[in-house]
Amino acid sequence: MSKEIKILAIESSCDETAAAVVVNGRDVRSNIISSQIDLHTVYGGVVPEIASRKHVENINYVIQEALDTASVTLSDIDAVAVTYGPGLVGALLVGVAEAKAISYARKLPLIGVHHIEGHISANYIEHKDLEPPYICLVVSGGHSHLVKVTDYGEYEVLGRTRDDAAGEAFDKVARAIGLGYPGGPKIDKISGKGNPQAITFPRASIAEHPYDFSFSGLKSAVLNYLNQCEMKGESYNQADVAASFQQSVVDVLTEHAMMAMEETGMKKLAIAGGVASNTALRQTMKERCREKEIDFYYPSPILCTDNAAMIGAAGYYEYRKGIRHGLDLNAVPNLKLGER
Ligand code: KG4
Ligand code: ZN
What we know:
The chain has helices at residues 37-41, 48-69, 89-106, 115-126, 166-176, 183-191, 216-231, 238-264, 279-291, 301-304, 309-320, and strands at 6-11, 16-23, 27-35, 79-85, 110-114, 134-139, 144-151, 154-160, 268-272, 295-297. It is of the alpha/beta class. It contains eleven helices and ten strands. The protein has a five-stranded mixed β-sheet with strand order 3-2-1-4-5, sandwiched between helices. Strands 8-7-6-9-10 form a five-stranded mixed β-sheet, sandwiched between helices.
């Protein structure tokens, strides 16, 4: 039997300090996440300076807990994988510096992982049968990408957002209707009590780039609707606004994904990223995939939002390809998917 490859993975690109131990890319032995959400909630969004400071305070504890939970020590680890972009530069640097220190001290291979590649790879953890090629819709707080995964670690970006990311739109609309941060889970919850057909919000498409997304017009339409209600002295139904906004996002994401399935002839579709935990999106995608006899893959909610297990999964496939980074690895805040 071939040797098990145990990867210690570190993620600190935004407001979660996370570490995990993952064996052969799919077997998660520990997945520790220290969330800073409560700290940032009072400011209505992530404050980069606070995020970096908290990562520095937490990272050693989180790594130790990940090792302890997996019942291993650094002597058992074969490689260190770390998110090096995209994300907040000060936040990324904490994880990158830590990973470099461990790699240097323990003479372990260092693998820099693209954060989006991590999100996509979260699907490998619970779906042992999933293998490329497939289409993946990655929708998070910072990114909206429609990607053709041609092989492990090989991507063809079919479409991306032109302005706001899907999760960003959720967060901004939630703030506008008084739900607070983080908006996605709150809109998801309250939408269950609202009528998604109550208000017709736009579903944007870009004629010459049909796979691209644009959510800023939708966000403005919601803000205009709220302003109009205010000017007329009328109150609005929070749940109806949330549900109608969410329906518009879900329709656009589903239509784009289905168009990609049709045009590429692929029969496997995965979703990933924080917004992939949205109840309505999962349900709609599931139904459309069933109708079209497409195999649909989605991670558990804890693996959709930022975590290090997904970085361990992606890191393993990079490791297998022989990808290694040197101690000059730096944080790259605007790293493009497919770049190394
Ligand atoms: O992937 P993630 O944890 O971080 C980034 O890489 O950006 O995604 C966070 C985003 C936030 O915008 C959050 O509001 C959104 O994912 N989100 C959701 C849900 N849960 C998290 N959006 C819609 N419905 C949800 N249930
Ligand atoms: Zn993320």
